[in-house]
Specification:
Elements lengths: L13 E2 L6 E2 L39 H10 L5 H11 L14 H11 L4 E9 L4 E8 L4 E9 L2 E5 L3 E3 L8 H5 L1 E4 L2 H16 L18 E3 L10 H12 L13 E5 L3 H8 L6 E5 L5 H7 L8 H15 L3 E7 L7 H12 L6 E7 L13 H13 L12 H4 L7 H12 L1
Parallel strand pairs: 6-9, 9-10, 10-11, 11-12, 12-13
Antiparallel strand pairs: 1-2, 3-4, 4-5, 5-6, 7-8
This protein binds iron/sulfur cluster.
Length: about 425
């Protein structure tokens, strides 16, 4: 059930903290019941349900595999590079635009190498055109979203990595719907190509006259639908395609790519060994296990300290500063003592290795899942900064999509839009 559908709760018992008494709202005391597996542990879906596989696409293949596939289709291998150029540089899959390919084989070649992967169902434009939220339907009807945002000097795309999500976080509409399936490498990459196409067509507004940055997606955040590290191989293959120089890939900088997780510790360790300097973000949302067990059910497998240890190891191995994402939820996780506890845990692991990004949750008035008051947000940030932890309250623009890694409430809206256009 989306957060917005919950009945307004009665406020719970105040708890005593280091400051004045503050209300403590907890999912369990407000009617949230954690689904359990056969062993009585919180239900988490790590394996993707078996469904028809998406068509194999050029972006799923290595450059060598692309050449082999083109030859299989009866054409010389160099055609693979031409196709890659069209796709990764001109952002097109339309045979009509590929006049350098032999006319009589063009349709067959493009059909075999660049099969359609997703249909645009709907787009919402906000922030005077600076933000576009896309809803895509995949080949089997599954729905996913991506969000394109222009900032001064950069263009960020928030991508989905799974249709649905198996992590079951109570505040997340995506998580409540469960995991439909893992997305393929090409489906992840296609979101970027389609966004680049929209930008090239002048569909993203807001470019300032003195902004001379390149007109294409420069930054990726894996904070759309899904838990990226639960779809590890395809996500990493997609990252490799993103950073591969054109025309074999999108030629992006690894540093502009943020891979986030709610805390799949073994996968964080694996990521640290990849030797690709992506930015790593841990969606923590609570500094104490008691609350995090409810808020992020994967905490039942890997506790706050284990996740923070793995994040610290990521920094040690890669030299890349880690981001801690913290959605501030009114009276749930926004208490001053929780900021102090977070600072204590981060400082206990050294200095200079981490940055905290609190972000006010998308306000859902009358629900337990609503945004912290401004003075509470500021106090939370101040305490962390005073403790020596660089902390920046995130741009509210990201709020609707990045309160966590799943878009809040978007799923039901999306399903309705998809139903209208099906
Ligand atoms: S918040 Fe992220 S990990 Fe949790 S259920 Fe939603 S999409 Fe999955």
């Amino acid at each position: 059930m989306p957060a917005s559908d919950k009945t307004p709760p009665a406020r719970s018992t105040p708890v005593r903290t280091t400051g004045p008494a503050r209300t403590q709202v907890r999912p369990a005391t407000e009617g949230w019941t954690q689904k359990k597996d056969a062993e009585g542990r919180p239900l988490l879906q790590f394996a993707s349900p078996k469904r028809g596989k998406p068509p194999v696409h050029l972006a799923d293949m290595t450059p060598e595999e692309r050449i082999a596939k083109v030859k299989e289709l009866g054409l010389p291998g160099f055609r693979a590079k031409q196709l890659s150029t069209h796709y990764f540089t001109h952002y097109t899959s339309d045979p009509a635009h590929m006049t350098d390919l032999p006319a009589e084989q063009r349709e067959e070649l493009v059909g075999g190498m660049l099969p359609p992967l997703m249909t645009e169902v709907r787009r919402l434009t906000t922030d005077r055109g600076d933000t576009i939220k896309f809803l895509w339907r995949l080949h089997d009807g599954a729905l996913v979203e991506s969000v394109l945002m222009r900032y001064p000097g950069r263009i960020t795309l928030c991508v989905s990595s799974q249709a649905g999500c198996g992590m079951n976080c109570p505040f997340c509409a995506t998580g409540q719907a469960g995991l439909t399936r893992n997305m393929s490498t090409a489906e992840i990459v296609e979101q970027i190509v389609r966004a680049n196409r929209a930008i090239a067509n002048g569909e993203l507004g807001g470019k300032k006259r003195d902004d001379h940055s390149m007109e294409r997606v420069s930054n990726i955040v894996f904070m759309g639908m899904g838990e990226p590290l639960a779809n590890y191989k395809r996500v990493m293959d997609a990252v490799r395609v993103m950073v591969a120089p054109q025309p074999n890939g999108l030629g992006m900088s690894a540093r502009g790519i943020t891979v986030s997780t709610v805390g799949l510790v073994p996968a964080i360790r694996k990521l640290a060994d990849e030797n690709i300097p992506v930015t790593f973000a841990l969606s923590l949302h609570a500094s104490d296990d008691q609350l995090r067990d409810e808020l992020i059910p994967v905490n039942s497998r890997w506790k706050v300290d284990e996740a923070l240890d793995a994040a610290r190891e990521y920094f040690e191995k890669t030299g890349r500063r880690v981001s801690i994402e913290y959605a501030l939820i009114k009276d749930m996780n926004d208490h001053a003592w929780r900021a102090d506890l977070l600072a204590e845990k981060l400082n206990a692991r050294g200095r200079g290795w981490v940055h905290v990004n609190p972000i006010p949750l998308n306000p859902t008035p009358g629900s337990i899942w609503t945004s912290s008051d401004i003075d509470v947000q500021n106090e939370f940030v101040r305490r962390l900064n005073d403790a020596g932890i660089p902390t920046t309250l995130r741009d509210p623009r990201g709020k609707e999509i990045a309160g966590a890694c799943g878009p809040l409430v978007a799923t039901t809206e999306g399903a309705a839009a998809a139903a209208r256009t099906a």
